[in-house]
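Running this now, will post back.
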Amino acid sequence: MKKTFLLLLFIGSLATIVRAQVGFEAGLNMANLAIESGGNKVGTKFRPGAAMGLFADLRLDQNAHIYFEPGAYYQNNGAGLTGTPSGKYIINAANFPLNLEYKSGYKCGRRFWVGIGPYIGLNINGSVDYNSATGIPASSTELVIGTSIKEVDYGIGLNVGYIGGKHLFARLHYQLGLDNEVPSGDSKNSLKQSSGGLTVGYMIRGCRARSVFGGSRRHEGNHWRGLKKNHWSTRQRFRTPPGPGV
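Update: finished.
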């Protein structure tokens, strides 16, 4: 948890330095595991859980379409077990995606986006729980991080989203783990994580984010009403000035 806190602090500090937009989000996370034991596949199914965290949007181009988006999230991962006895894997993790995002439209207006990038995950704790079956009592075994399952996971993630204006947004995400999480695993003994879900969130910083290449954009507010820059400039140029005494 100390590592998670330090990474959250780093993201917040980085966003403050470059005046990035920052947001937080929370929602549903549907997790699953691909498990092989002794060369045999273990039956699994998606297990619902929660995902919550924060991110920073660091603009990479002057037209405000391409962003670098580091984030830090707490996720309930794992899977349901469909064999006999049935049960579930519970893996609580901190995930740190490093996404490259493309956003349509104009800053502070309605926008769609799509992103892709790697992620690093830190497994915090977990357990394997089995339900009772005929002649078999229910049981629960703790996952020892570093012994039962590796501490670090990594993979690639995809996400698409929509923001309805300056603040509120929704995002669909999917992450595919690429590492075998069994510490002494091989091709016949493996565990790989995956998850996807839906979150909703809120942007908590203003609209005058600065490019990571420097330079402020004092007039970016001219996109708040969804007008293209040249249309806004024309409207401002020909707007009738106020009369005397106004």
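The radius of gyration is 23 Å. More later if anyone needs it.
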